[in-house]
Structures are given as C-alpha cells and as structure tokens.
Amino acid sequence: xxxxxxxxxxxxxxxxxxxxxxxxxxxxxxxxxxxxxxxxxxxxxxxxxxxxxxxxxxxxxxxxxxxxxxxxxxxxxxxxxxxxxxxxxxxxxxxxxxxxxxxxxxxxxxxxxxxxxxxxxxxxxxxxxxxxxxxxxxxxxxxxxxxxxxxxxxxxxxxxxxxxxxxxxxxxxxxxxxxxxxxxxxxxxxxxxxxxxxxxxxxxxxxxxxxxxxxxxxxxxxxxxxxxxxxxxxxxxxxxxxxxxxxxxxxxxxxxxxxxxxxxxxxxxxxxxxxxxxxxxxxxxxxxxxxxxxxxxxxxxxxxxxxxxxxxxxxxxxxxxxxxxxxxxxxxxxxxxxxxxxxxxxxxxxxxxxxxxxxxxxxxxxxxxxxxxxxxxxxxxxxxxxxxxxxxxxxxxxxxxxxxxxxxxxxxxxxxxxxxxxxx
Length: 424
Prior knowledge:
This protein is α/β, with parallel strands linked by helices. It contains 14 helices and 10 strands. The strands form 2 sheets. The chain has a 6-stranded parallel sheet, with helices on both faces.
C-alpha cells in the first residue's frame, strides 16, 4: 500500500477559542509529539503547526492515523477525554486535499486576517522542527520549498500581502511609522482584552520598543507580559506611566473617557506623545489633540486603513489561487516522476550489470587502451538504450498510467529479482 500525505486540522473555523486553547501545543509539546510519531509509526514526513488560530498535523502514511494522533495530542496535553474533541478536527485523507490545505494555510488564505504576515514564519519554524528530527524526507523537503517559492511569487506578483489588514496590526504599523526616529520608544498598553492582546503580540514587529502592559486584572496582564518578555505594572500606576510613555494604546471598556484633555495638558510633552484609542466606546477624549505635541488616532481611523488593505487582498485572491494551482501542478509532476525513479534506477543497474559482466567475459586479454575504448562505446550504447524507456516512463507519469509501464519493464528485465552477490 502506498503512503498518502494526510492532515488533521483544528482551527478557528470549526473550534471556539476555549477549545483551541486546550489543544494548542508549545514548542516542547511539538518536539515530544514529533518524537512519538517517529517512534510509534516510523514516519519520515511530519509537520506540526500550532498557532493561536490553529493546531494541525501533516503526515505521510499508508493508513489513516488521525484518531491515533489526536489521542497522542491528548496524552501530551494530559487530557483524559480527548475523544470529546475529535468532532472539532477536520480530516484530510487524500494527497491533493492535504497539500492544497497546507498551501492555503502557508500563504494566508485560511488565516483569520486574510494574508496574515506571521503565518509564513510560523510554517518555516514548524518545518525546521521537523527537519531537526529527521522527519522531513525528500517529499516534505520538496513540498515545503515549493511552498516557500510560491509565497515569494505571491509577494512579488500580487497585492495580497500589502499593508496591514487587521486593526491590531494596523495600529502597530502606525506606531512603528511615527516612532521610527525615536530610540527605544516607550509604549504603554492599557487593557489586554482580545484587541489589546493582539496589539501586544504584534509588538514583536517593533523589536526596539520598550513595552509596558497594565490591566485592571493584574494577573492577566502579568501572564501576557511574561509570555512576551514585557514589563507589567499595576493599573493604579497607569497615569504615572502615561506621563513617561511616548505611545499610549488604550483598549479598555469604560462608559466615560478614561484619558481626558485636563489630565494630558498637565503633563510636560517635550516632543510628541501618540495616543491610540482602540476602545469602543472611546476611552480617550478627542479634545486632547488640542494639547501641543499630542497625536490621537482612534479605532475608526485605523479600521478604515485596515479595511482598504483587506479589500485589496480579497481582490488579489483569484490571482493567488492561480499561482498556488500552478505550483501544486508542478509539485505533482515531480511527485509522479518520483514514483518511477526506483524503476529507472533498477533498469540502469540491471543493464550496467550485464555490461560489466560481458566486459569481464570478453576483455580478459585486452590491453588498457582497448578496455577504455570498449568501456566508452558500451556506456554510450547503454545510455541510448535507456533513453526510450525513461522517456516513455515519464510520459506515462503525466498520463497517470505509469503502473502498467513499470510492470512491463519489471517483467521484461526481471527487475524484482534479488541481485546475485559474487564471492569476494
């Protein structure tokens, strides 16, 4: 039975965040799971991708091992009732389905924010983790490098990756632009709800920034700050921290403005202070812009920029899908040719063995010059004899008809026989 490339996927499309959090795998868990899959199932091509929006396992095997793999995930996560989560997984048991899905995920077509810039790096890290454990064979190596090349084409030939298409990323892009001439800009993030957490995670794109997080619930802010390597302060020190910050991002829920003009105008602002209000309803008074040195952007300003970018990305999807289809076709052409490679090698070896035996038989008394001449002639003859069956085999691959040709050549040249070992 031939190995098939398969996948299991749990994503935001079929599982709420409460389930995704339970199944999510950190680097240590991914490493342990890769080792188990290698040891238990003797796999050679495995890729595990786990982000905030998805946990997916890609693998090559002759059998559908989706249930066994989900049980291994449960074992790794300490879940006694992992079978309860099976309904949230989507199973891809055909080569073409699993490969198409991996392409779409890697390029960003399946991302919550279409064209997500982070997914390409996450996929590269997943591939590196597999390669480090020798769990990337010729098939996966070729597939991943085809995906990386496709990603380059998408960036170069379409508008699919242009600009920021999420409010949180657009906010970070704005901060990066305004603070570009500031050494280690001090950024204060107030509130770590869904959007505040996204902004915090996207701050990795401004590596020089000194980020401080605060939240009404200190434990939640500390957990996020520890994860990202940021500073955390109690909410009671929020106003004091705002005075020192170059950038203040507010995403707290409050019925009345939390940051007022009266508060801000009492501060000494030597150059500029950027306020980004991502709260709905707004948590910063619009009149603070009247204070010298203050810049204010609210969620509507940023969302309109993100929406315009998203529309461009959506318009580019047909072109992206065309590029993906071309790459998948090229990959499958390679995969088909790989199918006949063992037969071609066996045929070459069989003919070479005949050539060497006949050379040995008839050239016992020949001098060195005669041996060299006949060796050259017989090698040339062998190449010409091989040319036609090799071309026909490759053509049969493209017609999906290689099996018959392989059987015919195997019978004609007895390619399945065990090679006879000569005594030393």
